[in-house]
Amino acid sequence: QVQLVESGGGLVQAGDSLRLSCAASGLMFSRYAMGWFRQAPGKEREFVAAISWAGGITYYADSVKGRFTISRDNARNTVYLQMNILKLEDTAVYYCAASGATYNGKDSRTDSRKYDYWGQGTQVTVSS
User: Fold this and answer.
1) I want to staple 22 with a disulfide (CB 3.0 to 4.6 A). Which of 34, 44, 83, 96 is the partner?
2) What does the pLDDT look like over 30-59, one tens digit per residue?
3) For residues 101 and 116, what is the distance between their CA atoms, to the nearest angstrom?
4) What pLDDT does 55 receive?
C-alpha cells in the first residue's frame, strides 16, 4: 500500500520560512518523480514544484520561483519543500504527489493528472 505522509506545516508570519517533508512508503521511490501542489480555500489545486526521480530536473510555479526549493533524498524516501519569504497568498493545504508517468516535457510534471499517488495534505497558514 502506497503512503505519502506530509509534515511540517503550520502557522507562520509573512516573511518566515517553513520546510515541508513528505515521507513515502510502499513504492519504488527512486523511480517516481515527485511534486508539490497546493489548494487554497475556494480555489483549485495548483502546481507548486516538481522534481525528477534523480533530482536533476526541477520545475516551479512562477509564483514561488526564487522562494521555494524542492529536493529529495532517495535514501530516506523523502521529498522536501523549503519555503522562504512566505507570503499571505501562500496560505493553502500543501499536498505531495508521486508520478510514474514517462517524462514528456514540463507538462508531464506540472499536470496533476499525471500523478498517481497523493498525500493527505498539510496546512500552511501565513499571517500578516
Assistant:
1) 96
2) 999 999 999 999 999 999 999 999 988 999
3) 8
4) 87
| Cell numbers 493553502: residue | 92
Show the low-confidence residues of the chain (pLDDT under 70).
none
Amino acid present at 120: Q
Give the separation between CA 66 and CA 88, rounded to whole angstroms.
16
pLDDT, residue 109, reads 92
Q: Which residues make Cβ contacts (< 8 Å) with residue 35, sequence separation at least 6?
A: 47, 48, 49, 50, 51, 96, 97, 98, 99, 109, 110, 112, 115
What the block records as the C-alpha cell of 115 is 500523478
Distance set, CA 11 to CA 31, 88, 90, 128 (Å): 33, 11, 11, 11
Q: What number of other Cβ atoms are within 10 A of residue 108's Cβ? A: 16
